[in-house]
């Protein structure tokens, strides 16, 4: 599915004028409908009034903490949120993803990388869901209704935990799921060493579904944060 970029409305919430202008300039050729906001309050108001298709949100805002802004935005829209952050701690990244962000990029960043992230999130948000509940990626077929994965028409035998893990990741391809989000969804509890559990089961899952488990193309690690599933052609 091709993305008709001129139909998308983007909102950039960033208090630093130079960064805001650079971001808008880098995206405007493909996304001419760009709204700018310099504070958290203005950004939340712009979401309500303009209904953007994607939001780029800086965490270091002068009036409201960026994570709180992210929570407020997520409460009113399902549009993708990409966070710009100068915070490099794992706890900050996990907190913003738990607050509803879909992706993040740390400062300093290249505008080319940001543009690529924007395009990927727009494709993900607009991608039609298969009416039959079948996802195809890198030669792997995942049938959500039959709870079955196969490659070359050969069924891959997954344990219940491996299937639940795969189901969570493919429920929103491209989205970063934190260790705790996956752990709570699969094991249905909040206690336990989420990273240890996932490290073992993700390794086993990759051995079964990846063409080259040592160089995975489907289940991608976000170091210190979690995992995401990529719809590789």
Word description of this protein:
This protein has 233 residues and is an alpha/beta fold. It has two domains: 5-126, Response regulator (Rossmann fold), CATH 3.40.50; 134-229, Arc Repressor Mutant, subunit A, CATH 1.10.10. 40% of the residues lie in helices and 21% in strands. It is built from eight helices and twelve strands. It has helices at residues 17-28, 40-50, 66-74, 90-98, 111-126, 160-170, 179-187, 194-209; strands spanning 9-13, 33-37, 54-58, 81-85, 103-106, 134-137, 140-143, 148-151, 154-156, 177-178, 219-222, 226-229. A five-stranded parallel beta sheet has the order 2-1-3-4-5, with helices on both faces. β4, α4 (90-98) and β5 form a beta-alpha-beta unit. α1 packs across α5, α2 packs parallel to α3 (66-74) and α7 crosses α8. The protein is globular and about 55 Å long.
Properties at a glance:
single chain; 233 residues; alpha/beta; Rossmann fold; Arc Repressor Mutant, subunit A; globular; disordered N terminus
Helix and strand arrangement:
Blueprint (H helix, E strand, L loop, with lengths): L8 E5 L3 H12 L4 E5 L2 H11 L3 E5 L7 H9 L6 E5 L4 H9 L4 E4 L4 H16 L7 E4 L2 E4 L4 E4 L2 E3 L3 H11 L6 E2 H9 L6 H16 L9 E4 L3 E4 L4
Parallel strand pairs: 1-2, 1-3, 3-4, 4-5
Antiparallel strand pairs: 6-7, 7-8, 8-9, 10-12, 11-12
Can you count the helices?
A: 8
Specify the structural class: alpha/beta
- Beta-strand level of the residues, as a percent range? 15-25%
Radius of gyration equals: 19 Å
Q: Which fold name fills CATH's third level, the topology of the largest domain? A: Rossmann fold
CATH class of the largest domain: Alpha Beta
Topology pattern, helix = H, strand = E: EHEHEHEHEHEEEEHEHHEE
Largest sheet: 5 strands, parallel
Order of strands across the widest beta sheet? Answer: 2-1-3-4-5
User: First CA to last CA: what distance?
Assistant: 12 Å
The count of β-strands is 12
Low-confidence stretches: 1-6
Helix percent reads 25-40%
Number of domains: 2
